[in-house]
């Protein structure tokens, strides 16, 4: 499994700087003892949970660096003034991305649903990232309204590691396997679930380290449409805004049509939450949360974050292998495989619905099922009943009610009663709040009626 999936609606600006395998040599025991590890050396040996998208405990031994002959591999690090640094014995190869960085600026647009955050593995079910923070943010949005999602990310690579084959297991992982039952069944499933919770579903076979800023933006699809904006235009404007905020573009270069998008202004309905909301994730570096303005140059925190990546890298892309492949005992291997598959199924969700399509000539509804104009809806008025209508001296009142809305008039039937129950409902069709008509009733023979207007889209 790889992180770089083929995604719909992809546009990318890539600034490439070549990478290089480090200049390495065999070091003596004394040299190995004093040399520090290469930054991020331990990340390649970690487990990974594809459901939560979180790194887990070490499954590979990344602490041992001396060979049986008391030597180690020492490499010069060009990102740290050619300092001599050691590699774990389990690392087969290492690359350094030479100055300044290997930098990717990426924007992705996804029209509907949550498929961009998940990896399909079980037919109609998806489980990848279904418990991640980004997935929770996106799933909450689609419960509220129709949304289009776009991902705007910056990736900076500093180092890369590849594990040897087969990689040596960490001491704690081997000890855990020694205590694990040989079979997976109802009586042992809790022990296997604890193993998955601790070590994940997969492990890193190859990693690229550095830093990644990822901003997930959710745009209200129908609200954007009513503001005369397409999903593509929203994404393009937001991509420019990210470039402005990170100091890669001047605000004067942004088209006027994008300015109100960057200001998050809804002019069609004055919706208080604006056209979009965002969720930000930052991997690597030290001390920056990834928040910045998209309407002005706000790049100081970003630039300081870039500088810190040489010393504090994190995993930004990777190649995964299933965790069960590391289990030496064949019975346990099959059991771990079953436990992981069950864990994935337990956390699967049904695939997202497709983009809706509305056919016919429904008033004020476009083909994408969005309203064409704001503040339009169907107005239905219910005249329910009257009370104590003593308008007739010699008998019961012959009562009826009239209602007015602009030039529209409606009247109930006549009921001979001092407490008539008309239960009349009048559909006034499509109306606009912008007209501000007063809904009124006319009293006849001292009749007081209860008017219960209701609106709906």
Short description:
The chain contains nine helices and 24 strands.
pLDDT averaged residue by residue: 79
Specify the overall morphology: elongated
- Beta-strand portion reads 25-35%
The number of E-state strands comes to 24
Distance between the termini: 45 Å
Main β-sheet: number of strands, strand sense, barrel status?
Answer: 10 strands, antiparallel
* Range of helix content: 10-25%
Number of domains: 2
User: Which class do the helix and strand fractions yield?
Assistant: alpha+beta
Number of helices: 9
* Low-confidence region ranges: 1-19, 98-127, 443-457
| CA-atom Rg in angstroms | 32 Å
Keywords:
alpha+beta; disordered C terminus; elongated; disordered N terminus; cytolysis; Immunoglobulin-like; MACPF_CS; three-stranded antiparallel β-sheet; disulfide bond; 457 residues
Textual characterization of the structure:
GO terms for molecular function: wide pore channel activity. It is found in: Membrane; Secreted. This is MACPF domain-containing protein. InterPro entries: C2_dom (IPR000008), C2_domain_sf (IPR035892), MACPF (IPR020864), MACPF_CS (IPR020863), Perforin-1_pore-forming (IPR052784). Residues 1-19 form the signal peptide. The strands form 6 sheets. Strands 1, 2, 4, 5, 8, 9, 12, 13, 14 and 15 form a 10-stranded antiparallel β-sheet that branches. This protein has a 3-stranded antiparallel β-sheet with strand order 3-6-7. β10 (120-122) and β11 form a beta hairpin. α4 crosses α9 (330-346) and α6 packs across α7 (256-262). The longest helix is centred in the last third of the chain and has 17 residues, at 330-346. It is α+β, with helices and mostly antiparallel strands and 457 residues long. Helix content is 20%, strand content 34%. It is built from 9 helices and 24 strands. It has helices at residues 29-34, 133-144, 171-178, 189-199, 221-226, 231-245, 256-262, 300-308, 330-346, and strands at residues 10-15, 19-21, 24-27, 46-49, 54-58, 72-77, 83-86, 91-97, 102-110, 120-122, 125-126, 147-163, 202-220, 276-283, 314-322, 349-350, 376-386, 398-399, 402-405, 408-411, 415-416, 421-432, 439-442, 449-456. It has 2 domains: 10-350, no CATH class; 376-456, C2 domain (Immunoglobulin-like, Sandwich), CATH 2.60.40. The chain is elongated and about 120 Å long.
């Amino acid at each position: 499994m790889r992180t770089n999936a083929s995604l719909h609606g992809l546009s990318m600006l890539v600034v490439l700087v070549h990478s290089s395998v480090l200049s390495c040599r065999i070091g003596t025991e004394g040299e190995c003892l004093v040399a520090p590890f290469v930054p991020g050396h331990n990340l390649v040996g970690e487990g990974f949970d594809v459901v939560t998208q979180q790194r887990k405990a070490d499954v590979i031994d990344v602490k041992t660096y001396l060979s049986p002959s008391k030597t180690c591999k020492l490499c010069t690090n060009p990102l740290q003034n050619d300092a001599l640094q050691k590699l774990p014995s389990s690392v087969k190869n290492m690359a350094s991305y030479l100055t300044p960085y290997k930098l990717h600026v990426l924007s992705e647009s996804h029209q509907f649903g949550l498929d961009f955050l998940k990896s399909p593995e079980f037919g109609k079910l998806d489980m990848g990232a279904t418990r991640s923070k980004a997935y929770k943010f996106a799933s909450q949005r689609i419960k509220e309204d129709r949304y289009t999602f776009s991902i705007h990310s910056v990736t900076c690579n500093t180092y890369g590691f590849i594990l040897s084959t087969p990689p040596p297991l960490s001491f704690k992982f081997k000890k855990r396997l020694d205590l694990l039952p040989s079979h997976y069944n109802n009586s042992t499933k809790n022990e296997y679930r604890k193993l998955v919770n601790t070590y994940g579903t997969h492990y890193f076979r190859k990693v690229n380290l550095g830093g990644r800023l990822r901003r997930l933006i959710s745009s209200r699809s129908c609200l954007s449409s009513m503001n005369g904006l397409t999903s593509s235009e929203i994404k393009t404007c937001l991509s420019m805004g990210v470039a402005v905020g990170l100091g890669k573009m001047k605000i004067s270069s942004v088209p006027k049509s994008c300015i109100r998008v960057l200001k998050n202004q809804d002019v069609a309905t004055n919706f208080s939450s604006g056209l979009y909301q965002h969720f930000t994730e930052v991997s690597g570096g030290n001390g920056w949360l990834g928040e910045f303005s998209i309407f002005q140059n706000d790049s100081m925190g970003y630039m300081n974050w870039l500088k810190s990546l040489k010393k504090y890298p994190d995993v930004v892309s990777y190649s995964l292998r299933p965790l069960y492949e590391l289990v030496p005992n064949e019975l346990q291997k099959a059991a771990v495989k079953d436990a992981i598959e069950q864990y994935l199924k337990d956390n699967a969700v049904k695939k997202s619905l497709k983009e809706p399509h509305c056919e016919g000539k429904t008033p004020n509804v476009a083909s994408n099922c969005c309203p064409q104009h704001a503040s339009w809806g169907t107005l239905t008025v219910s005249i329910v009943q009257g009370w104590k209508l003593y308008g007739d001296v010699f008998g019961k009142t012959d009562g009826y009610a009239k209602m007015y809305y602009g030039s529209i008039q409606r009247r109930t039937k006549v009921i001979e009663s001092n407490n008539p129950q008309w239960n009349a409902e009048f559909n006034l069709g499509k109306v606009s709040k912008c007209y501000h008509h007063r809904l009124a009733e006319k009293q006849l023979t001292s009749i007081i009626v209860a008017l219960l207007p209701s609106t709906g889209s």
